[in-house]
Amino acid sequence: MTKIAKGKRPVYLDNPQIDKLLAIVMALTGEVSVLHERLDTIERLLEVKGILSATEIEAYEPDTKVTKERELWRAEYIARVLRVVQEELETLNQS
């Protein structure tokens, strides 16, 4: 279950819209950084142990089930990234 912060968002820049964009970019940056490190670790371990090579990883083609699972994950991820925008829309719709 995703936690949602309550209360007003802090404003760091003169334009609150730019603050929201910055929040989205920073959320993405954090996610990408963690994923990159984990993926790098996994790929290095697989190659060192002789399980998979970088070439095999690059050549992998997912089947339909994997593709659907990835699409679901991607939709949920995009929703998390755009949470700031969604919250604003919900606030506007309640007014």
Q: In total, how many domains does the architecture comprise?
A: 1
Mean pLDDT: 88
List low-confidence stretches: none
Q: Helicity level, as a percent range? A: over 70%
Commentary on this structure:
The chain has one domain (16-94). It contains four helices and no strands. Helices cover 73% and strands 0% of the residues. The model has no long low-confidence stretch (mean pLDDT 88). By secondary structure, the chain is mainly α. The longest helix is centred in the middle third of the chain and has 33 residues, at 16-48.
Summarize the structure.
The protein is mainly alpha-helical and about 100 residues long. The chain is about 75% helix and about 0% strand. It has one domain.
Which terms summarize this structure?
95 residues; mainly alpha; 4 helices; 0% strand
Which secondary structure elements does this structure contain, and how are they paired or packed?
Elements: H1 16-48, H2 54-59, H3 64-81, H4 83-94
